[in-house]
Amino acid sequence: MSEIIELNVGGVSYTTTLATLLQDKTSLLHELFGEGRESLAKDSKGRYFLDRDGVLFRYILDYLRDKALHLPEGFRERQRLQREAEHFKLTAMLDCIRGERDARPPGCITIGYRGSFQFGKDGLADVKFRKLSRILVCGRVAQCREIFGDTLNESRDPDHGGPDRYTSRFFLKHCFIEQAFDNLHDHGYRLAGSCGSGTAGSAAEPKPGVDTEENRWNHYNEFVFIRD
């Protein structure tokens, strides 16, 4: 059982023990390495070849070693990992993946931002990039903290009550809207709806350092994300 096994899983090399591969008696790995090893294909270096996702197989091995599911922060491949666990018939690991998903409470988060476009010397014909002044976060406090962590700025929220309250006064410490979307996706949220509107700039003189054309082309957008 302490025999060292060399594996090539989808082009990624692994070294483990036979005992680890036989840990789950109802799994496909137990079937393959318990009695059917002689029929397994080998690569040019003599490693047993498995035609599966080589990157995700590390989590399969980790689970067999520790009997616990340990995924990195922001892990985005849960559905693919679930498919791998299904292929290898790892029932207990599947229960962990599904239980982790079910443990997350449903909720709704709204992301809003006001922005403008940076213009070049040629005005509208030379739009440089999108400018966001601030990304607003609205929703249940506990869920906002869960999703955005240290990137959440709570300094404008005057009510420091319990985590079950709602707020519309959080904003992010960065101005990367796609990063905010990635955070929501990583925590199981999906986009349910969005809206946007343009605002006409004031006829008054803009503040120092603000371009006149840029001031005219302001816009506000909101995105509603839900987790079932």
From TrEMBL:
Transmembrane segments: none annotated. Residues 107-227 form the KCTD8/12/16 H1 domain. It is found in: Cell membrane; Cell projection, Neuron projection. Its main location: membrane. InterPro entries: H1_KCTD8_12_16, SKP1/BTB/POZ_sf, T1-type_BTB. Keywords: Cell membrane, Cell projection, Membrane, Phosphoprotein. It holds the Pfam family H1_KCTD8_12_16. This is BTB/POZ domain-containing protein KCTD12. Residues 5-93 form the Potassium channel tetramerisation-type BTB domain. Gene3D superfamilies: Potassium Channel Kv1.1, Chain A. GO terms for biological process: protein homooligomerization. One of its GO terms (cellular component) is neuron projection.
